[in-house]
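Inverse folding, one chain.
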């Protein structure tokens, strides 16, 4: 989806409606266009779970380099609950961190 969905005013009503039934798990801004080469907007994704989740969503950011998305998503898999890396995980080409302030964008 377009990255503007995560914080844009035009998607605010949709985000509020989603929040009624779903808890966000991962909010991501993908910097590299290699995954979606024909996209005309910056790409993001919003992963949520049905119902209430008693944990902060994670934010994921990757830069424009071709390997940044995959490197960051691999690190996310290692870093989350059963993994052995602690968050926040800040690297030159990506960042993964808890995002407790997401509710302010609803």
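Residues assigned per position:
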């Amino acid at each position: 989806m377009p990255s503007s969905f995560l914080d844009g005013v035009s998607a605010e009503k949709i985000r509020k409606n989603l929040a009624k039934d779903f808890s966000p798990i991962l909010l991501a801004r993908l910097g590299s266009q290699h995954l979606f080469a024909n996209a005309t907007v910056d790409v993001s994704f919003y992963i949520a779970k049905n119902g209430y989740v008693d944990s902060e969503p994670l934010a994921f950011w990757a830069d424009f380099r071709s390997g940044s998305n995959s490197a960051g998503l691999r690190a996310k898999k290692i870093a989350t609950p059963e993994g052995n890396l602690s968050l926040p995980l800040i690297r030159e080409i990506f960042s993964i961190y808890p995002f407790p302030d997401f509710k302010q964008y609803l």
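DSSP finds three helices and five strands in the chain. The beta strands are 22-30, 43-50, 58-62, 89-90, 94-98.
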